Amino acid sequence: MTDAGADAAALDARRAIMAWRREQRAALIGARQAMSTAAHRDASHTIGERLRTLIDAVHPPVLAGYWPIRREFNPLPLLRDCVANGVQVALPVIRVKNEPLEFRLWTPGAPMKVGIYDIPYPNEGSVTRPDALLIPMVGFDAVGYRLGYGGGYYDRTVASLLPRPCLIGIAFELARIDSIRPLAHDIRMDHVVTEGAGLGQP
Prior knowledge:
- By secondary structure, the protein is of the alpha/beta class.
- Helix content is 35%, strand content 19%.
- It is globular, with a radius of gyration of 17 Å.
- It has one domain (3-193): NagB/RpiA/CoA transferase-like (Rossmann fold), CATH 3.40.50.10420.
- It is built from four helices and eleven strands; from the N terminus they run H-H-E-H-E-E-E-E-E-E-E-E-H-E-E.
C-alpha cells in the first residue's frame, strides 16, 4: 500500500470510530436520562461517599469540579463541603471555543455567568491550576479511557497541564462499555468513581 493509500485507510478508520462514538454517546446519555429518580439518587449517594474518601486520600490543595448537566452526578454538595474544609475549588470555563479550559476559583454563592453549552461558570474567580480534576464521563472502559461529549476540551486541557493533575472520572455504572476504541489524543483517568466497581477507587 502506498503512503497515500495508508493515510486514506487511517482516515477512514478514524471516521468509523468517530461515527461509532456518536452512536454510543447518544445511547449512553439516553440511558442516563432514563434512570429512575430513586436509582439516580441512590447511585449518586454512593458515588458521593466514595469521592469523599478518594479526595481525602489525594488531598489536593486545588480541586477542579464541574457544573452538572444532563443528569450527570451532581458534585456541588461535595464541592461546598470541600470549600468549608479549606480546599480551594475551581470550575472550568470555556474562554475560547476548541481551546483548553480555564479554571477559576469558586465558592458557594459566587456570582456566575452562563457560558457555551449553557453551563454556569464563576464570573469573577481568580484563574488557578488544579491539582486534581473531577471529570464527568458519558462512558468509560475497563482501563480508564473516557468517552465525553465529543468536544475534546478535557483532552486538550490535560495535555496542556504540566505536571499532570490527578484525573478522577465520574460516571454511573451504566456508562461502562468494553472499550471506547481509544485514539492518540485520548487520555486515561487515574481513577474512575461509580456506584459499582469503578477503577482505582476506594
